[in-house]
């Protein structure tokens, strides 16, 4: 009885087979993650094999721009940021930058309009220079890819204790301009002062 031996494929054939399998896998992964216009692109929560025999679950990234809280319901504390306007605030239709006292003592709402993917947000703490409260903004990296929409974003900024919120306060909002913020209202959001359009 004759015996036959199977020869291993040539190394070049092996390499082309591996490349083909890798490309097919990435194509399938891309197809599996894309959606039609109404699908949900959040990560799957079903278990998957991690290659070691154990199971893992995928979870959405917590700091993705779409995960920002709504400004109307976010926690009011220094450094908080949210998409949209605070509860009870109406914004100008053409956008702008403004400030108002929040319902929490010593905390100022700073509202900006800009790209939804690159919102202009304020630093958590303001400083006092002379008689003015100075708010600075977090720099948006030069290599950021920003959408060309115009939406509001709200930042909560702590104001130094020696600022008298019961009187009008001049606030310098970075390079956006200055406003005179009306006095705070106990337990409620104050009136928003908007930077005048140039």
Please give a structural write-up.
The protein is α+β, with helices and mostly antiparallel strands and 198 residues long. The protein contains one helix and eleven strands, in the order αβββββββββββ. It has a five-stranded antiparallel beta sheet with strand order 3-8-5-4-11, with no helix packed on it. A four-stranded mixed beta sheet has the order 6-7-9-10, with no helix packed on it. Strand 4 and strand 5 form a beta hairpin. The protein is globular. Mean pLDDT is 77; it is low at 1-50 and 54-67.
* Poorly predicted spans: 1-50, 54-67
Instruction: Report, as a whole number of angstroms, the end-to-end distance.
Output: 97 Å
The proportion of residues forming helix, as a percent range, comes to 10-25%
- With helices defined by DSSP (H or I, 4 residues minimum), what is the helix count? 1
Instruction: Specify the oligomeric state.
Output: single chain
């Amino acid at each position: 009885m004759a015996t036959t031996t199977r020869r291993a494929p040539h190394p070049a054939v092996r390499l082309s087979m591996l490349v083909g399998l890798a490309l097919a896998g990435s194509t399938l992964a891309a197809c599996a993650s894309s959606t039609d216009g109404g699908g949900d692109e959040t990560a799957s929560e079903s278990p998957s094999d991690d290659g070691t025999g154990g199971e893992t679950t995928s979870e959405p990234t917590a700091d993705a721009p779409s995960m920002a809280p709504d400004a109307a319901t976010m926690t009011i504390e220094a450094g908080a940021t949210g998409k949209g306007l605070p509860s009870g605030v109406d914004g100008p239709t053409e956008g702008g930058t403004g400030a108002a006292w929040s319902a929490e003592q010593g905390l100022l709402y700073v509202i900006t309009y800009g790209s939804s993917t690159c919102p202009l947000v304020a630093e958590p703490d303001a400083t006092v220079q002379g008689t003015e409260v100075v708010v600075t903004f977090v720099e948006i990296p030069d290599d950021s890819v920003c959408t060309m929409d115009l939406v509001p974003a709200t930042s909560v900024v702590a104001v130094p204790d020696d600022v008298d919120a019961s009187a009008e306060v001049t606030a310098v909002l970075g390079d956006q301009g200055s406003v005179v913020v009306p006095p705070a209202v106990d337990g409620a959001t104050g009136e928003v002062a908007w930077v005048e359009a140039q």
